[in-house]
Amino acid sequence: MNGTWSIPSDAKCLQVNGYPIAYRDAGKGVPLVLVHGSLTDYRVWQSNADAFSAKYRVIAPSLRHYYPEPWDGTGGSFSVQQHAEDLAIFAKTLNLGKVHLLGWSRGGSVVVEVAKHHPEIVRTLILEDGGIEMPVEETPESAAAVA
């Protein structure tokens, strides 16, 4: 994190891995964690969160180096793996138990990594236009399929 910044009045803040994570939290019930894409932040979910919070506890964090932080791009802690680890610790610190994880775009990659490395916190995994990397073993068949 570079410089000083403050959490907006419509958000809460939780320290995760030594980093402040801004988030919105509304509603009651089973937690639904909404994870934004590359060019957005927790604010992108506002209209969805209002509807979802009638049935769920809706939590929308901003990932590390996203709004409200005015990040200048320096530092090496911007990766899907870092965001996934932050998100898992975020959920565990809030004692959310098993959550519904909804990832949009790049957020889809983040929630898949959470599911792979922290399955104990995942109730369901929901991908909306999620970009995920699926390693495929190099075989003659896979090479032919790619060609």
Quick structural gist:
It is built from four helices and six strands, in the order βββαβαβαβα. The protein has helices at residues 46-52, 80-93, 106-117, 140-146, and strands at 12-16, 19-26, 31-35, 57-61, 99-104, 122-128. It has a six-stranded mixed beta sheet, sandwiched between helices.
Number of separate strands: 6
CATH topology name: Rossmann fold
In helices, the fraction of residues equals 25-40%
Q: How widely separated are the two ends?
A: 43 Å
- Name the helix and strand elements from N-terminus to C-terminus, one letter apiece: EEEHEHEHEH
The second-level CATH architecture is 3-Layer(aba) Sandwich
Major β-sheet strand ordering: 1-2-4-3-5-6
Total domain modules: 1
Shape call: globular
Q: For the record, what is the CATH homologous superfamily label?
A: Alpha/Beta hydrolase fold, catalytic domain
Low-confidence runs of at least 5 consecutive residues: none
User: Averaging pLDDT over every residue, what do you get?
Assistant: 89
What value does the Rg take, in angstroms? Answer: 16 Å
Supply the CATH class. Answer: Alpha Beta
Estimate the strand proportion.
15-25%
Output the structural class: alpha/beta
Number of helices: 4
Set down the secondary structure blueprint:
Elements lengths: L11 E5 L2 E8 L4 E5 L10 H7 L4 E5 L18 H14 L5 E6 L1 H12 L4 E7 L11 H7 L1
